[in-house]
């Protein structure tokens, strides 16, 4: 419970990202490929600038070049529908895994062998969090700008979003590893710290939802990460499918914190 409050604050911040912003607050968007105002000359000029290395797909004006998936050429309402459909699919996939699939294998040899290793995921998140600071430009490239899909808005700049999500990844990953490492070393942590691994897992579960739109943006707009690596739409789709797996694993590990919260709120 010690870190449940901070995790819920993170969730509140993430859930506000899709709140429509007043037009005056949205960054200007030049929808080169999706509006009738676009001319062939404009598109050719953008493609020439990208070929010359003056812009990179996903950065600045290059955000509006047709992506390999072609999804950013759709009208904004259709783009928004695609985004919400992908988010729903990720959520359904995570629910199926964490529900009937895990229930079917719980207690089996495979479950008992793999379950203790799950906190190692903290190492992946820790490394990813550090990369948010060492490879910030690449992460900024896949961060949706205000106005993306016609619905996206966040009060922070792409750089700020990269930095705060990186900080949360470092904290959540390190905290989960700390709890798991203490257990392996036979060290009893103070009860005041609460279920350490579970708190870290819930933090990372919320964080994973918060950063999923960046993975969707990479698919819809062909934004590269790393900048010089062209990623096909299929690879982006596989990465989004893996989000469901991560969410299911983290939700399972976060159960002690969730049950603790339900008990304190009188929901059980």
Detailed description of the structure:
- The chain is mostly helical and 268 residues long.
- It is built from ten helices and no strands.
- Helix 1 (4-15) packs parallel to helix 8 and helix 3 (76-105) packs antiparallel against helix 8 (196-221).
- The longest helix has 30 residues, at 76-105.
- The two termini are 16 Å apart.
Shape category: globular
How many beta strands in the DSSP annotation?
0
Mean pLDDT: 81
Proportion of residues in helical segments: 55-70%
Separation, N- and C-terminal Cα atoms: 16 Å
* Poorly predicted residue ranges: 1-41
> Order of helices and strands, N to C?
HHHHHHHHHH
Could you tell me the radius of gyration in angstroms? 20 Å
Helix-strand category: mainly alpha
Largest sheet: none
| Percent of sequence in beta strands | under 5%
Helices, by number, come to 10
Features:
268 residues, mainly alpha, 61% helix, globular
Q: What's the short story on this structure?
A:
It contains ten helices and no strands.
Topology of this structure?
Blueprint: H1 4-15, H2 40-51, H3 76-105, H4 109-114, H5 121-134, H6 136-141, H7 158-184, H8 196-221, H9 233-253, H10 255-264
Helix pairs in contact: 1-8, 3-8, 3-9, 5-7, 7-8, 8-9
């Amino acid at each position: 419970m010690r870190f449940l409050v901070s995790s819920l604050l993170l969730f509140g911040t993430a859930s506000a990202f899709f709140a429509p912003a007043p037009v005056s607050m949205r960054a200007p968007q030049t929808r080169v490929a999706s509006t009738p105002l676009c001319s062939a000359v404009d598109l050719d000029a953008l493609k020439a600038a990208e070929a010359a290395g003056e812009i990179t797909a996903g950065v600045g004006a290059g955000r509006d070049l047709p992506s390999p998936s072609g999804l950013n050429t759709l009208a904004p309402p259709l783009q928004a529908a695609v985004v919400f459909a992908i988010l729903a699919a990720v959520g359904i996939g995570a629910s199926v895994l964490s529900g009937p699939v895990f229930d079917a294998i719980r207690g089996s040899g495979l479950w008992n062998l793999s379950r203790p290793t799950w906190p190692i995921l903290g190492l992946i998140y820790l490394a990813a969090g550090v990369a948010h600071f060492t490879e910030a430009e690449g992460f900024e490239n896949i961060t949706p700008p205000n106005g993306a899909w016609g619905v996206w808005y966040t009060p922070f700049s792409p750089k700020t979003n990269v930095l705060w999500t990186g900080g949360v990844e470092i904290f959540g990953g390190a905290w989960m590893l700390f709890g798991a490492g203490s257990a392996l070393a036979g060290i009893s942590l103070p009860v005041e710290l609460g279920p350490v691994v579970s708190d870290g897992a819930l933090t990372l579960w919320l964080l994973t939802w918060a950063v999923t739109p960046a993975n969707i943006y990479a698919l819809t707009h062909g934004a590269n990460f790393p900048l010089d690596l062209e990623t096909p739409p299929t690879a982006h789709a596989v990465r989004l499918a893996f989000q469901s797996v991560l969410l299911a694993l983290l939700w399972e590990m976060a159960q002690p914190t969730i049950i603790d919260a339900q008990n304190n709120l009188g929901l059980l």
